[in-house]
Amino acid sequence: GKDSSVLNHIVRQVDSSIPILFNNTSNESADTYKLIKSLDNVRILNPEEGFWQYLKNKNFIPSRMARSCCGIYKHNLTSDNLEHDEKYLLFMGMRNAESNNRSGYETIHNFDYYPEDWTCGLAIRKWKELDIWLYVFLRNIEINNIYRMGYSRCGCVVCGYRSNLEEMITEYNFPKTIDRFNVCKKVTFLHTRGGLD
What we know:
Elements: H1 2-14, E1 20-23, H2 30-37, E2 42-45, H3 51-58, H4 69-81, E3 88-91, E4 108-109, E5 118-121, H5 129-139, H6 164-173, H7 175-181, E6 191-192, E7 195-196
Parallel strand pairs: 1-2, 3-5
Antiparallel strand pairs: 4-5, 6-7
Helix pairs in contact: 1-5, 6-7
């Protein structure tokens, strides 16, 4: 996304040899994969089980109230691919303004889902969205084409945290993905006096 692209630009001005870790959720747009493949020194972390297979095997429907996607396809995927007895400084493009949870993050942050010796640098945490876009335009940074479709953020194509507008954009631009996910069309509940059968 734009935050990661800006952070990448900043970090690589300091040290261009720092690798990018891309967590392949297997639920990304083709534009995301195209952008990732255009970058140098990228290590793609692939899950053992893809997103759609996970949903099918676990009979699970992610939503705002119940989700495990970030844990499995981001935090765990990173943890599974790095040596736990090594010390790491991981730069992450998280910003305080993104959510209530992230509002309390510090510039040097340790997440409980990573080992103690893994420190996360949140260099742009105080930036507002306007700061991000101004930096993108000032530095002529290539961004994910998905923003040109009207999305406010990248990430998983199907996500319980998408706005209603972004869900409409997804239905328009990714109808096959929506059809694959739209379990409401596949499951019928019969309402009877005794409840649901």
